[in-house]
Amino acid sequence: FCVRLATRLRSEHVTTKLPFFVYCESSCRSILLHVLSDLMTLHEHFGQLEGLKYAWIGSACPALNTYLAVAPLLGIDVNYYCRCDGAGEPVSPANLKELHDTHRPQYQVNIHEAPDLHTALKDVNVVAINGPPWTKTSQMIRKVQIDKLAHTNWVFLHLFPRRPNEVDEEIFKGDNNLLWKSFANSKWVCAAIIDYLLTGSPLTTDAGECHLSNDVS
């Protein structure tokens, strides 16, 4: 049970009576703003999203649920490696059955649970960390380990807060880390949503720069 659920349900009920749009960027099931910012950052970095291989290392959470819901629409393969804290038992994301019943047959992407860290990191382009796979027995992930297993063009993303024994400083402070760029791109995602709601037109791009439509001051 998520303590935020009751608040979110009350908020959804209230918004049905409001004369303006209310956007929920995070809930117990999804965390859309964070994932959209990551996807925008990955598209800027790689030039496309289709064909990317994405590894999720850590606990199952709303961010992973959101990635699994969106990835099939964009042609992104996902390996997820989740375990219960301390027990080392596999954890299934909340929307996994829905994914198998709908998106996977339609979009033919590979989304599967990795049995170990080695399999999760094999040939991936994106390494996303949300805490160690389990806390009592986990070992810190090191850059040399990712260099050996992942694709040569791999990048790193993270879901704060940062925890002990996740990744070494060479990863977190290195050139492969796109976390800070993703945070910076959050404002463009918000701007795009607001611009679309006010004007009905998406943000336009010009030489890689985002511009609000002329109708928004």
TrEMBL record:
InterPro entries: Asp/Orn_carbamoylTrfase_sf (IPR036901), Asp_carbamoyltransf_Asp/Orn-bd (IPR006131)
UniProt keywords, alphabetically: Transferase
Organism domain of life: Eukaryota
Pfam families assigned to the protein according to its UniProt record, in alphabetical order: OTCace (PF00185)
Entry GO terms, CC: mitochondrion
EC number: 2.1.3.3
Span of domain Aspartate/ornithine carbamoyltransferase Asp/Orn-binding: 50-196
The keyword 4Fe-4S is annotated on this UniProt entry: no
GO molecular function: amino acid binding; ornithine carbamoyltransferase activity
One of the GO BP terms on file: citrulline biosynthetic process
Family: Belongs to the aspartate/ornithine carbamoyltransferase superfamily. OTCase family.
Protein name according to UniProt: ornithine carbamoyltransferase
Source lineage: Eukaryota, Metazoa, Ecdysozoa, Arthropoda, Hexapoda
